[in-house]
Amino acid sequence: MNEVTGEGRRPGDSYLPAALGVCWRYLHNLYTRPAQFIPSLLFPLFFLAAFAGGLSVVADSPGFDYYDYTAFQFCFVLIQASALAGVFAGFSIAADFELGMGRRMMLATPNRSAIVVGYAVGAASRLGLTWVVVTGVALLAGMSVGGGPVDLAGMYSLALLGNVAALLFSAGIALRFRSLQAGPLMQMPIFILLFLAPVYVPQALLTGWIEPAASVNPVTAILNAARSLLAGEPTGILAAYAVAFGLIALLALWAMSGLRRAEVAG
Amino acid sequence: MDARSSGTLGGLGGPPDQIYMITGLRSSAAHSGSVDGAGRSDGRVADNGIEVEDLVRQFKNGPRAVDGISLEVKPGEIYGFLGPNGAGKSTTVHMLTTLLPPTAGVARVAGFDVATEGPLVRRVLGAALQEAALDPHLTGDEHMRLQTALHGLDHDDRRTRGRELIERVGLSDAADRKVGGYSGGMKRRLDLALALVHRPRVLFLDEPTTGLDPQSRSALWEEVTRLSKEDGVTVFLTTQYLEEADQLAERVGIIDAGKIVAEGTPAALKAEIGRPSVEVVPRDPAKAEQSAAILGRFGRPVPAAGEALGVRLSEGIDELVGIVRAFDEAEIELASLVLNEPTLDDVFLARTGHHLEGDEGAGDSGEMSLPDQAPAG
Predict the structure, then answer these.
(1) DSSP summary character for residue B287
(2) pLDDT band at A204 (very low <50, low <70, confident <90, very high)
(3) Backbone phi, then psi, for B339, in 5-degree steps?
(4) How far apart are CA B263 and CA B86, in angstroms?
(5) Over pLDDT 70: what percentage of chain B?
(6) Chain B partners of A121 at a C-beta cutoff of 8 Å?
(7) A62 φ, ψ to 5°?
(8) In this structure, how many other beta carbons lie within 10 angstroms of the beta carbon of residue B35?
(9) Are A257 and A170 a contacting pair, CB within 8 Å?
(10) Which of A3, A25, A32 sits opposite B146 (nearest CB)?
(11) What average pLDDT does this structure show over A38-65?
(12) How much of chain B exceeds pLDDT 90, in percent?
């Protein structure tokens, strides 16, 4: 390697270090700024308390066949918290571009897709603490777990895939607008998709317009599968993974085309 | 006379016939080919130079910010890109650093095409842009950690390289402090250090000293000169400060409204202008015509700002006494009389008909203060 000029490395050599560098900074800023991190942790807990506590009587409805209402709501909150962690990472991308750090990364990173990958790894990494807190609070609230370790691993991995999909969606928006003003555009579609799934009662009990909406909503497949895994009675697992990976593939294209837009815009 | 034209800073002064002429791009070898371990494509002799031909950037529904510029920067050279605000300097830098794709034209940095070989270009260039994009929540050391990671430096190299550069820019004592508390000068120095972490062959500095105090500015000039002379780094420096271009750059390109209007060594460009000029402002505007006639006896009229009348002295500075005497004899009172040694601003004025912005008092002008009611002389 040339000591003066820094030659001797291919652009691809820096891909992983660059992605990990972006991830490190994201997590560093997240965990050293409680004002940013704590609300994102309290948000799912609020939902868990409101749904599992306030609506527990829903479990007595005729035809409600899930074994535990807290567990029923826990799955939704877990997937919601995971998806929102991806959205919050999208906010960070937008903020970085708005404040100039995005340009620094675009300038210093030979292969720029490493930037998106770095944020994705960061968004996934932050899930660990969120999962521990949400699961801990649910267990303290009396949630019983029907599934074994493999079932639970399947449930958490579905939540992880939801996180990646949400991050890629948000990254696509953030890179197109490069401004925090695009925040609602990242958050609202995810919220709408989440709440068009069977949030409060099983899909079979849905009536009216929400029933067909839920049946075509990709989140429904993931949520139903997660609930079945937590109950220890896995159903629709392959379909859920297929939907999740399909979403990720599509949204990866969306995010990368956003990156191209950001490159063209300078 | 300044240091540059007297030859004390690299002996780069030279007669007008040494003005660098744009000769088009050197013939680079084929563009295709795999990349070898040194980051170069097969068959290509990559150097540290910059080659630009007919580069254009047009923004949507806007004018051409860069309108067909061509230039060549030799390896190891410090090239000053001088122009007023909005002239197209930063847009040019953004294209050369792969932050913005050109609308048309070709540009190569270290032999790599900025439009088609972005990753390779980014591998060899370092850049400190106009606004130092720093994270206020990270310390200086943490910025180094991030930057070395983005560039993919070996793990062992990261810490030592970071320490070395932090020390070199004089930030050792502040390295563990959050950048949000840094002064403007400290941020600039950190930004420069960050641009150097991967040992770039070509360094882009976009108005690096804007807003800096004289001491920080001088320190940065010193470091840039050292990088060029000792490490052989090619430096492309944009500035709106004449003094900066004059002191630092071996060659200067002057850009206005997206076009290069002059290019050469500072000394050669000034020599092109030749003799000094005089600007006068008659106290009574009604006597402007008569004043212009008097000045016309001493040389060729040149454009001057505002109400001033300018003349390029035919016989040089010795004619100043004659001018004062002539106005005295004509009983025309002058509000001001300014003697201008040729500066890069004169070059700019001669080529564009207007002055550079943001450069007050940077030239070698000597103004004679005139008492309120006293006649000239």
Answers:
(1) G
(2) confident
(3) -100, 125
(4) 19
(5) 82
(6) none
(7) -60, 135
(8) 18
(9) no
(10) A25
(11) 82
(12) 45
Per-residue pLDDT band at A44 (split at 50, 70, 90): confident
Over residues B43-60, mean pLDDT: 80
Touching check for A36 and chain B: CB below 8 Å?
A: no
ipTM of this predicted structure: 0.86
Question: Which residue, B363, B220, B266, is CA-closest to B305?
Answer: B363
- Any B CB within 8 A of A10 CB: yes
Which chain A residues touch B98 with a CB distance below 8 Å?
107
How far apart CA B184 and CA B17 sit, in angstroms, is 41
Q: How far is A121 from chain B (nearest CA, A)?
A: 15
Per-residue pLDDT at A116 exceeds 90: yes
Kindly list the distances between the CA atom of residue B243 and the CA atoms of B196, B264, B363, in Å, as whole numbers in the listed order.
25, 16, 7
Backbone angles phi, psi at A197, to 5 degrees: -95, 170
Is the minimum CB–CB distance between B97 and chain A shorter than 8 Å?
Answer: yes
d(CA B79, CA B260): 13
SS3 state at A138: helix
Q: Buried (b) or exposed (e) across B233-265, using 16+ Cβ within 10 A?
A: bbbbbbbbbbbbbbbbbbbbbbbbbbbbbbbbb
Token pair recorded at residue B170: 């004089």
Contacts of A143 (CB under 8 A, 6+ apart): A52, A68, A70, A71, A74
CA distance A257 to A174: 11
pLDDT, one tens digit per residue, over B193-213 is: 999 999 999 999 998 888 788
pLDDT (tens digit per residue) in B257-289: 899 998 998 888 877 776 788 899 999 989 999
Which helix (H) or strand (E) is A77 found in, with range?
A: helix A69-99
What is the per-residue pLDDT for B25? 36
pLDDT, one tens digit per residue, over B103-145 is 999 999 999 999 999 999 999 999 998 777 899 999 999 999 9
Mutate to test the interface with A, among B146, B147, B150, B226 (most CBs of A within 10 A): B150
Structure tokens at B283: 């106290």
- Per DSSP (E only), the strands in B23-63 are 50-58
**Whole-number Å distance between alpha carbons of A44 and A133:** 10
Q: Which pairing describes strands B125-128 and B202-206: parallel, antiparallel, or unpaired?
A: parallel
